[in-house]
Specification:
Order of helices and strands: HHHHHHHHHHHHH
Distance between the termini: 44 Å
Structural class: mainly alpha
Oligomer: single chain
Strand content: under 5%
Radius of gyration: 26 Å
Length: 353
């Protein structure tokens, strides 16, 4: 039995081709991050808002009109929430000089501590062979790179805010056409599996978004009540800020400490209240991780802790803050795809075990 040499060469080149293709995809995702992130955010919002549009369709509202109504209602609610929060922010900014004085004194004390440590370390600076002290200078490119990275994140945010409403509207209004066109990309024998995969993906992403909104609401309410009971200024603003920050994996607890601790500097002079605030926020974070998120989010996502950690590390390094926000939805979507492709099902099982 003879073997076709073309097939042999093609089989041997498959791994190399896959590596090259993977590198091309990663390069595209990196350099076109603003466009890709905008599309991903739009897809998530479209999945979240689609049930509302379908509900309006039951009352014989055309899908395009329903999509417009839903977007207008959601936008109005977000604008109203923004003005409610902005009133608190405006009041806080008027009182900021009082807090800045306290922070300045606190930072000066820390600077003195750091200066003492720096002076103590000067004695162990590396020296050259002649005994002269070697001065280690920081690379000038570091600050410049951080500034450029920040400008890139700001550009991505502006692009998302500008284009997401239009993309979401088109995705909602033309859902049936998009769905039909997507089905046509696959052979007729595979369309049933593709349809099931898309339905599971829709359920997973929608459940993830709804679950996180509920968890953020519960944490914000609990933090608001706690800050109000202990007499902290601006309890609503601090509660919302700490509640949302608490959702950030791993770093969320420390990030949620910062707002109430800063405001508390102008109110207390002892360490007791600050330790109490840190302990209570940590308690809220533990309840969220061990009770709320498994109950409201985990049943939809089905990802193990190791997969989530690796995903956060990679996408956070790859896309920064937006990568942290999109890491879990991307990994959950990848798991759904793996579960519906026979060759990749072992990967899907690894992501969930």
């Amino acid at each position: 039995m003879s073997t076709n040499p073309v097939q042999v060469v093609h089989a041997k080149s498959n791994p190399s081709q896959r590596i090259i293709a993977g590198g091309i995809v990663l390069a595209f995702l990196y350099y076109a991050s603003a466009v890709v992130i905008t599309l991903l955010v739009s897809i998530l919002l479209a999945y979240f808002l689609d049930p509302m549009v379908e509900w309006l369709e039951r009352f014989r509202v055309p899908r395009g009109v329903g999509a417009l109504i839903v977007l207008l209602v959601v936008t109005s609610l977000m604008v109203a929430l923004f003005f409610v929060v902005w009133d608190r922010v405006d009041a806080f900014t008027k009182d900021w000089p009082e807090y800045s004085k306290v922070l300045k004194g606190f930072s000066e004390a820390l600077d003195k501590r750091f200066q003492q440590v720096e002076d103590a370390l000067k004695g162990i600076q590396p020296q050259d062979q002649k005994g002269r002290l070697v001065v280690q200078q920081e690379e000038p490119g570091m600050i410049r790179s951080l500034v450029l990275r920040g400008l890139g994140s700001l550009y991505t945010l502006l692009l998302v805010v500008s284009f997401v409403p239009f993309l979401v509207f088109f995705m909602l209004a033309a859902k049936q056409d998009i769905w039909h066109a997507t089905m046509q990309l696959f052979p007729p024998t595979e369309r049933t599996g593709v349809k099931e995969a898309l339905e599971d993906l829709s359920k997973t992403l929608r459940g993830y978004i709804v679950g996180n909104i509920l968890v953020a609401g519960i944490l914000s309410l609990a933090s608001w009540i706690f800050f109000w009971i202990i007499g902290l200024d601006y309890p609503f603003l601090l509660g919302v800020t700490s509640g949302v920050m608490n959702l950030v994996p791993y770093l969320g607890t420390v990030m949620a400490w910062v707002p109430p601790l800063v405001v508390g500097l102008a109110k207390w002079n002892t360490a007791g209240p600050f330790l109490g605030i840190a302990a209570m926020i940590t308690f809220f974070h533990m309840i969220a991780i061990n009770v709320l998120i498994p109950a409201l989010v985990g049943k939809q996502v089905h990802l193990n802790a190791l997969a989530v950690t690796i995903s956060l590390l990679f996408w956070g390094w790859f896309w920064g803050g937006m990568g942290l926000l999109l890491a879990i939805p991307i990994t959950a979507a990848a798991k759904v795809v793996c579960d519906h492709v026979e060759e990749w099902q072992p990967v899907g099982r690894w992501l969930s075990t």
